[in-house]
Amino acid sequence: MRRALKSPTVRAALVSIGLLAAAALPALLLLPADSRAEATR
After folding, report:
1. pLDDT at residue 36 in the model
2. Tens digits of per-residue pLDDT, 1-34?
3. Among 9, 13, 22, 29, which lies 20 to 30 A Cα-Cα from 38?
4. What per-residue confidence (pLDDT) applies to 13?
5. DSSP annotation string for 5-36
6. Torsion (CA) 27, 31, 37, 38 in degrees, nearest 10
7. What pLDDT does 25 receive?
8. 3-state DSSP call for residue 41?
9. Contact, 19 vs 25, CB < 8 A?
């Protein structure tokens, strides 16, 4: 496991997954709020 973490390809994959998750989380949190606000209007 530790050897895998030292490999640059595994690190790049983890970083890209982390960036995708960071980009997706706010969108997932905001979309339901927007649809709820429009439904109550």
Report:
1. 65
2. 677 667 899 999 999 999 999 988 888 888 777 7
3. 22
4. 94
5. HHSHHHHHHHHHHHHHHHHHHHHHHHHHHHHH
6. 130
7. 86
8. coil
9. no
